[in-house]
Amino acid sequence: MDRPTHCKRGHRLDAENMQDRGPKGWRCRACTRLMERAKRAGVSIEAYLAAKPDPTRIRGNGLSGENHPAWKGGRHLQGGGYVRVLAPGHPNADRRGYVLEHRLVMSAHLGRPLLRAEHVHHIDHDRANNDWANLRLMTASDHLRMHGGEYPHQAVCSAGHPMEGDNLYVQPSGRRACRACIQRRCREYRLRHRDPATPPAMKDRTHCPQGHPYDEKNTYWRPGGGRACKECCRARTKAARAAAS
Predict the structure, then answer these.
(1) What is the pLDDT tens value at each position of the chain, 245 positions in all?
(2) Which helix (H) or strand (E) holds 138?
(3) To pair with 193 at 20 to 30 A between CA atoms, which of 25, 96, 111, 175?
């Protein structure tokens, strides 16, 4: 017996939608999902479909894209005022094949796909105006700083440190972080992963070789690990500048 091409509800039985259950035969994955949704809603499948039409059935019959009666050219306005355009195959497209129009225009102008860390700014702040003259390419951190006064942000971190000035670190992705908390986590990581073969006299000493104390004000923690004396660092910097002049 030949395998049917559609189930009794009109879903296409292709490789993605067909579930092989061995001796029990095959089952339609779309119908299984409908049964689970109807069960959660506490109604039958017929009542669930009557209240909410099944979109997979329309796609299964081939009524998608330009063949669908509600086709609007693949361009629509999404939440937030941004415009999305259907461009399947584009490197910046999502899993449904849509790209934000302002990113698509900038990508076409540059002749390359945009990176995740690259943002496109609307000069007149109209998100639907995607004319090339109204767009400007910038990094995520610069874009966040530009809109820093327009959108409310957290004033302090979870530890109570102020999220401003020198203590504010803006990551390439645009996310804001607290420098004091980052330094604290780095110190804790170094303490947890300290080499046990290090002599105790080296890791527990309280003064540098020049006699300066390793207190909170005079200790500099290197990003790669270890600590240094700030007084000694300043002395070496002054000596180097004097030698250069």
Answers:
(1) 466 777 777 777 777 777 777 677 777 888 888 888 888 877 787 777 666 554 444 444 455 666 666 677 788 888 778 899 988 888 888 888 889 999 999 999 999 988 888 889 998 888 889 998 999 998 877 777 776 544 456 778 888 888 888 888 887 766 788 899 999 888 888 777 766 555 545 556 788 888 888 888 888 887 766 788 899 989 988 888 888 87
(2) strand 135-139
(3) 175
pTM attached to this predicted model: 0.41
Q: Say which amino acid occupies 199.
A: P
- Distances from the Cα of 45 to the Cα of 5, 7, 181, 214, angstroms: 21, 15, 52, 72
- The one-character DSSP state at 144 is H
Question: Nearest 5°: phi and psi at 137?
Answer: -90, 135
What ranges do the domains of the chain cover?
Answer: 1-63, 75-146, 153-193, 201-245
Helix (H, G, I), strand (E, B) or coil at 208: coil
If we measure between CA atoms, which residue out of 127, 176, 120 comes closest to residue 143?
120
